[in-house]
Design goal:
220 residues; alpha/beta; seven-stranded mixed beta sheet; 8 helices; 7 strands; 43% helix
């Protein structure tokens, strides 16, 4: 999906990824982390999703906030212009989510960013890009940040392969899934990247979530 494709293929692939996230409980780590939101958050809380894709994570966060009567301002950013097109198509207007095409590290919103989240993007980046992202989040996320990504493990690969054999996912997902798990992370990878970004290790949590997620976050 990182290469050339039609909008229709891109959109259908994102629909499959949303199903993967639902069936494999992919939203759970981010929403559980948000439940640990420190007392006295700003009103509204400005949450930015970097690499938002179809916007499915922000739609989940909108539901999380509504249930808890928490006021949020939600912004999704993605380099691919197809992503904003798909997110706009898939998202009810009444949720009021803003979609931006561009590089998040060049994003300068009128309202300061309180929380940055990212899901299934980091494994597409090179190490130096991840370090730059960590530094940007440290400098710009006033309350905290959370990266929800894949764990590199044989068990996770086997789980994905089994599901891919019984579920009719988009061909991009079937092809890219094993590649993504091979590019994913183990805990020592994140420790090395956090050290390179000079993020205080004692302030960060590195959490394993089954099936197949390894998530990194901190509250400022």
């Amino acid at each position: 999906m990182d290469g050339d494709c039609s909008y229709e293929d891109f959109r259908d692939c994102l629909r499959s990824l949303e199903k993967v996230n639902r069936w494999l409980l992919g939203y759970r780590p981010t929403l559980a982390w948000l439940d640990r939101l420190p007392h006295g958050p700003p009103d509204p809380i400005h949450i930015v999703d970097v690499g938002c894709g179809s916007g499915d994570l922000l739609r989940q966060i909108a539901g999380w906030a509504r249930i808890r009567s928490i006021a949020v301002q939600l912004t999704g950013i993605d380099l691919n212009p197809y992503a904003v097109h798909a997110a706009t198509e898939f998202t009810p207007k009444e949720l009021g989510i803003t979609w931006v095409t561009g590089n998040a590290m060049a994003y300068r919103p009128e309202k300061q960013i309180d929380i940055v989240v990212s899901s299934l993007m980091a494994h597409h980046l090179e190490d130096e890009e991840i370090v730059a992202l960590l530094r940007w989040m440290e400098a710009n996320a006033r309350a905290g940040w959370f990266i929800n990504d894949l764990e590199r493990s044989e068990q996770a690969c086997r789980t994905f392969a089994w599901l891919a054999g019984v579920v009719r996912w988009h061909r991009f997902v079937r092809h890219d899934g094993p590649v993504s798990f091979r590019r994913a992370f183990q805990k020592e990878d994140w420790i090395r990247l956090l050290d390179a970004a000079e993020v205080p290790r004692e302030a960060v949590t590195v959490e394993q979530w089954r099936p197949g997620r390894l998530c990194v976050g901190r509250w400022q």
